[in-house]
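name: query_chain
kind: protein
chains: 1
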Amino acid sequence: MDEIKSERLDPYYRSMRLLRNTVNGSDSLQWDDVEYGKVEIFARGMSRRWYRINAHQLAGDKTQEKIFPHWTSSWVICVRGAARRTDFANDSSFTVSICIHTNKSGSRLPIGDSLVSLCLSLANDKTTAMKIPLLAQFIVCPRTRLSAIEIFQEEGIVTTDMLQAADDYFDVWEDDWDEEEEAHMEFLNHQNAINAYFAELSSQPEISADVLRMEDEIKLKEEKMVNDYEKMIYDHERAADRVADRDTERQY
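structure:
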């Protein structure tokens, strides 16, 4: 009795009951209600392609204010496609992500209502593909080609090679960033050394003008003494040369 009453009052249970009745009433849908807040449904399209719909409720701290748990905006919905039902069971590389979502304007619809709309759209995928080109691309893509594709989206397919190239690009970019960071750190160290040198100079006591004048006078006196000493030596050597010249003349 309490369970029936909760289904009548709780929007989540009411929307889930609508979804369950829709799935049970269709041969193209298979329901797997794992636990509260998680849903998994398999849909077989008119094209004979298979779709797996996974939906899980966001944690309470990740939902925005004034968003109720049963609203579609507080859930994450993912769709993967495959050519065979067994591809999902084997978790093979032949399953791809399909970026097909419920209408954004229905973000405040109960999650069950949104999933009903999505399930019926995928069960009638040939008709839906007339309005959603990415779904048409998935339907006509050969199974062998699916192994090289990761995502079908509005902007075009995303292949495994494209993702690998993006990873390589960011690896190279990270290496360049490391080199730039190293050069920047070297510049900062050099700049810090210069700043420390000038800081040391500024920390030394100032020399007064009288002290500088006294130092200059001492240097001038020292230079004069050196010059006088050198002149004395020069004069002495010249005098000795003259005496030697006179002695030489007397001998002859």
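note: The first helix runs from residue 2 to 9.
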